[in-house]
Model the fold of this input.
Amino acid sequence: MSSTQDAAPAAWPMDIATMRDTVNRLLDPDSAPQAFPPAGDELTTLTATVRGHLEVLVPDVEAAARAQLKPGSSPKSTILQCAWDARSRMEAEPSSKTGGPVAHARRLARSLNALCDHYEQLTGSDETAEQAARRHLGVHSARCPTCLTRDDDGANVGLSCAEGERLYDEHRKTLRGARGLALPAETSG
Done:
């Protein structure tokens, strides 16, 4: 074997913004107050996505907590308790006694959200929520066939894209949160 094959794989940074985006789809009532909670295939997909994020994030948060925090310190205990809680929730099955599949998915999402906070705290993530939202909007806009549709003169035709609009709304929410003020109404002209 070559030396490159013997080396441990490089640790990739977690995509916390994507994880939070998934959390928001399950927990954010402001994004579409008139909408019903996800159901059917969408709920199954979101639940599986949150589980996948947790499976990747929990071990890293546990390792970072053990490596960086002093033994017996309160934050370490809180972080490890949060990781344990996430593992317990992943093992649990949805039950009508505890609100069914939607409530189960939301409990998983709350665990993921808390672990994202702990991960950012432990790793000193430099990317703000605003920067992450802007990055997600940019990546989507650069790849989405609907958003990229141009006319014969090369001008964007402005087709409606539900995902692009959702990402733009998420970006605007982070701007409002960062400034503590409502954004001015957009003007046409």
Notes: The first helix runs from residue 3 to 6. DSSP finds eight helices and no strands in the chain. Residues 1-10, 178-189 have pLDDT under 50 and may be disordered. Residues 120 and 127 are 9 Å apart (CA to CA).
